[in-house]
Design goal:
Layout: H1 2-20, H2 40-47, H3 51-82, H4 88-97, H5 107-116, H6 123-133, H7 135-145, H8 151-159, H9 164-175, H10 177-193, H11 196-201, H12 210-213, H13 225-258
């Protein structure tokens, strides 16, 4: 079963790679080796598309989104998990209820909100959306992860005179390394690969991200397949490299946060 799943996952990747090496993928369709290796697609993407700018835009949006998400989600999860106050259950229920809302249903409200905030056609508007979109899932995982951290650590620090703020940043937050790494990787991957949100919030070419920049290769009447396949592989490379080296954090962090 796993072998069959691996084949299903690798076939599109191998097909894209082979197609990117062909001068005209339509003339040599399918999983066939190119009659002659052609790197024109890669050369054109690097020289004429200015793909470096789109890479930097995606990297900027993903990095800032991760930093903001980790900061406010970790602090809010700590408050809900460790403190007792009126309305705590209601806040948790409201956060959990957002898991049942399909992402496509939020398209117009998000577009309307970004416009009213004056963030339309800016990278900060995109960062704002990414930082808030994964709150519910991240909150659920991090809150459960706090159950694995002994309360005695906080009690000992409080006896020594440490404030709640210092307890969180000097004791709790460093212990959240595995789960923070998991949330950071998942948020970064989503921000890097997302196409819909940049499509509805960005119009200026200088602010566009990698997925949106690749859209120019396909139109109603013409398609530049060599450049498209080359850009797909170049955009996938950072994601594959990061996930290969960080997969233990992703799996381990999710498992730690999923079970008390």
């Amino acid at each position: 079963v796993l072998a069959a799943m691996i084949v299903v996952a690798l076939v599109p990747l191998v097909w894209t790679f082979l197609s990117s090496l062909k001068a005209d993928p339509l003339m040599e369709p399918g999983m066939t080796l190119p009659k002659k290796v052609c790197l024109d697609g890669y050369v054109t993407v690097l020289t004429k598309l200015e793909i470096g700018r789109y890479f930097l835009n995606s990297l900027f949006c993903a990095t800032i989104s991760v930093l903001i998400s980790l900061t406010h989600i970790s602090m809010s999860s700590y408050v809900i998990a460790r403190m007792r106050f009126r309305g705590r259950g209601l806040i948790t229920a409201l956060l959990m209820s957002t898991l049942f809302i399909p992402g496509i249903a939020l398209t117009f409200p998000v577009y309307n909100l970004v416009n009213k905030l004056g963030l339309y056609n800016t990278r900060w508007g995109l960062i704002f959306i990414y930082s808030c979109s994964s709150i519910a899932m991240s909150f659920f995982v991090i809150r459960n992860y706090f159950a694995t951290i002994p309360r005695e650590l906080e009690e000992a620090a409080r006896i020594d005179g440490a404030s709640t703020w210092r307890i969180f940043w000097t004791i709790i937050f460093p212990l959240m390394g595995p789960i923070n790494a998991t949330i950071a990787i998942l948020t970064a991957l989503w921000a890097w690969n997302d196409f819909l949100l940049p499509l509805i919030t960005l119009t200026d070419q200088s602010n566009q991200t990698i997925p949106l920049a690749q859209y120019v290769f396909q139109s109603q009447f013409t398609s530049n397949y060599p450049m498209a396949f080359a850009s797909y592989l170049m955009a996938m490379a950072p994601v594959l490299i990061v996930y290969i080296f960080a997969q233990k954090w992703v799996v381990g962090g999710v498992m730690r946060g999923a079970v008390k």
